[in-house]
Amino acid sequence: MKLPAPLLEGMLLRRYKRFFTDIELTDGSVVVAHTPNTGSMKQCAVAGHKVLISQSDNPKRKLKYTLELIKVGGCWVDTHTQRTNRVVEEALRHNKIKSLENFQVQPEYKLGDSRIDFYLEKAGSTVWVEVKNVTLCCRETTACFPDAVTTRGQKHLRELLFAKQQGSRAVIFFLIQRSEATEFSPADEIDPEYGRLLRDVVAEGVEAMAYKTIVTPEENRVGNQIPVVL
After folding, report:
1. Distance between CA 228 and CA 230 in Å, rounded?
2. Is there a contact between 2 and 214 (Cβ–Cβ < 8 Å)?
3. What pLDDT score does 44 carry?
């Protein structure tokens, strides 16, 4: 999907109060930008990293700037988690994800006490898909999730298992934003319970998929699939 344009170049000075970042623009001025990411942004929210931010003219916004991309290891990383599902939805609707082609796509569908990101249906076949944005590498070429303990993520795994037990396919979909990654694994050192649950639900039939993104200052789109190593 296309990113906002134009984007302004800058350097990250600090992230604070979870959703605020101080950004130094190329002209030397410093602005406060909103960062739409509730995670720790470990390896990404690092002082000195180059960033791209967008600007809004909406007078109702408290902050007119939004952090869009961060350069990590020479490549752009999309930390904007509110865009994650739209990138995956675009790929689903254009049949870019193997084994999930030609389904009717319904976002934000209720399952139990939660809303799962996507409910897919075709010819009597149903699939529940929960998406996770991955911006962390635990090892040089191993992307991993989560970057902080996630009880919400654990809950989603249990609900996907319930959907599988009720006769649907169920998919936990990891959208990998790190271009150097060649495989995905759970971040056991950060959230061992999530890793344990992921292995358990996969053993019971929940499908784990990992796809890398292709990120440029102009767009973010789903690229190739990489192995999930449990």
Report:
1. 6
2. no
3. 97
Residue 79, sorted as left (phi over 0), alpha (psi -120 to 50) or beta, turns out to be: alpha
Chain centroid to CA 20: 19
Instruction: Identify whether the C-beta of residue 208 lies closer than 8 Å to the C-beta of residue 165.
Output: no
Cα 175 to Cα 143: distance, rounded to the nearest angstrom: 10
Compute the CA torsion angle 156, 157, 162, 168 (nearest 10 deg): 90
What are the φ/ψ torsions at residue 56 (nearest 5 degrees)? -115, 145
Kindly tell me if the per-residue pLDDT of 114 is higher than 90. Answer: no
- Collect all residues with Cβ–Cβ distance below 8 Å to 61 and sequence separation of at least 6: none
Q: Model-level pTM? A: 0.96
Is the pLDDT confidence value at 131 over 90? Answer: yes
Token pair recorded at residue 77: 């990383």
Q: Classify domain 81-226 at the CATH class level.
A: alpha beta
Q: How confident is the model at residue 6 (pLDDT cuts 50, 70, 90)?
A: very high
* 191: Cα separation from own chain's centroid: 17
Query: In angstroms, how far apart are the furthest CA atoms of the chain?
Result: 58
Beta bridge partners of 207: 171
Selecting from 2.120.10.30, 2.40.50.580, 3.30.70.100, 1.10.3380.30, what CATH number does the domain 8-78 have? Answer: 2.40.50.580
pLDDT in tens, 132-167: 999 999 999 999 999 999 999 999 999 999 999 999
Report whether 193 contacts 150 (CB < 8 A): no
- pLDDT computed for residue 15 by the predictor: 97
